[in-house]
Amino acid sequence: MTEIPDYASLPERAAQTWPDRIALRFQGESWTYSDFADSVTRAEISLRRVGVGVGTRTALLVENRPEYVIAQFALARIGAVFVTPNPYWTDHEIRAALDGAHVTAAVYSQRHRTVAAESAIRLPVEDLVSPVEERTPPEPAERIRSGEHRDLFIPFSSGTTGHPKGVIHTHAGLSGGVHQLVTHLGLGATDVLQISLPLCHVFGTSMMGAALAVGAQVTLFERFDLDACLRHIRDDAVTVWPLAGTVAHQLLDIPHLGSADFPGLRYFMWGGSAAPAEVAKALTLRTGVGFLCSYGMTEAMTVAFNPVHDPADWRLDSPGYATEGTEIRLGPDDEIEVRGVSVARGYTTRTTDAAAAFTADGWFRTGDVGRIEPSGRIRIVDRRKDMIKVSGFQVAPTEVEQELLRHPVVDDVAVVGRPDDRHGERVVAYVVASSDISVDDLRRFLGGRLATYKIPREFSFVEVLPRTASGKLQRSRLRTDGPR
């Protein structure tokens, strides 16, 4: 594996190499790499002045905006730790997530001033970047050695199976994850990235780092806006766009959408869930843009990718091969286990289940059931704890969902198991449909595609499914509360 630049050094390195190149665009404003590095230095001064030091766990309670990224790099340079709950959570949810994370400082927007007041050290985001005349640091800045195994970044798991858990990544881990994205996305200085996903998520943070590592340009959105995203993709010739959740369905609903709307896009980047095959094929047919599928998670960042430079080997039913610096193996019950440069060192939550997820020799048990082909390509069968057992037979929810998504009026679907006195569990499907369709029609559609025991016993038609900010389906909510 090639030498990996330390995450904390990326702004300074980029400013030295591409000082006048545009690094970031946001709501009509632009920052060159020189501007951005200068802002990071000034933010470091502000943070040190209020008492942030080496090891200080600092909550970033700020929406998607440039100051969020600036704060992350400034904290990394100090040797502090940035803790990143979703800023769109309520204060109650943020308090619950931060419980056990030992946060003592907060950079905050006015939206979260109440919960931020509970931290001993506080800095409003408006005061983050100090005035130019105060550029001289109050004390020498400690620089983190490349490969340092000191804690740096605590994002939160998506909460698909319960309350979010803080996931502890080190300097080496985040630096490794950034390097993997650069390698497996084939990123370079001519790329133009569009980021509308949350910066609080591990993927948003590592994507921003990857852009800085190669001198690419990023257009940042505070919140996802499909019309604005499409306008920038067309006008700025965006080359890389992470596609999430139901956006692919929304794109297909746009009349006359075609290749002219994506003049520079190299691929639709897809991760977090299986790509809906029929939708992906239809979108590629209309736009000429293929799907580059991958596999990652909060605890392990970038686990597998289809080969970016070999589109003929891209597949929708597989996230590809292990990334550089990552090992993959199958544990008991074919559970996928991973070890590598971007795997977290553990959780902030000290429970038996959390401790069992990480082995003493560095393997992380993903909870996903998979297969490894002789070529090394992996396939995700389903979540281990989501598997449904009907009369002793295993049913993979993803398999049922993929078949239902082949029906032309099914836009989105989720399949879960419910207790059943006679069969142990029964299969239940929640369906988002674009037009009226009967339960009998759906059962007949599945009849020639699935074994009888896999066909849902119950169907519920809903307007929307519960998903996390990164687009992952929250099956646990459907099992306990239904689609509300």
Short description:
With 484 residues, this protein is an alpha/beta fold. It has helices spanning 10-17, 33-49, 66-78, 91-98, 113-116, 171-185, 202-214, 226-235, 247-252, 277-287, 352-356, 397-404, 439-447, 475-481, and strands at 22-26, 29-32, 57-61, 81-83, 105-108, 121-124, 151-154, 167-170, 192-195, 217-220, 240-243, 267-270, 291-297, 301-305, 321-322, 326-330, 335-340, 346-347, 364-372, 378-383, 388-390, 393-395, 410-420, 424-433, 458-461. It has a 7-stranded mixed β-sheet with strand order 6-5-3-4-7-8-18. It has a 5-stranded mixed β-sheet with strand order 11-12-13-14-15. A 4-stranded mixed β-sheet has the order 2-1-10-9, with helices on both faces.
Number of strands: 25
Oligomer designation: single chain
**CATH superfamily annotation of the largest domain:** ANL, N-terminal domain
Shape verdict: globular
Q: How many helices does DSSP assign?
A: 14
Share of helix among residues? Answer: 25-40%
CATH class division of the largest domain = Alpha Beta
CATH architecture of the largest domain: 3-Layer(aba) Sandwich
CATH topology type of the largest domain: Rossmann fold
Strand order of the largest sheet: 6-5-3-4-7-8-18
The structure class reads alpha/beta
Domain module tally: 3
Reported for the largest beta sheet, the result is: 7 strands, mixed
Distance between the termini: 46 Å
Q: Which stretches of 5+ consecutive residues score pLDDT under 50?
A: none
Radius of gyration: 23 Å
The overall pLDDT average reads 89
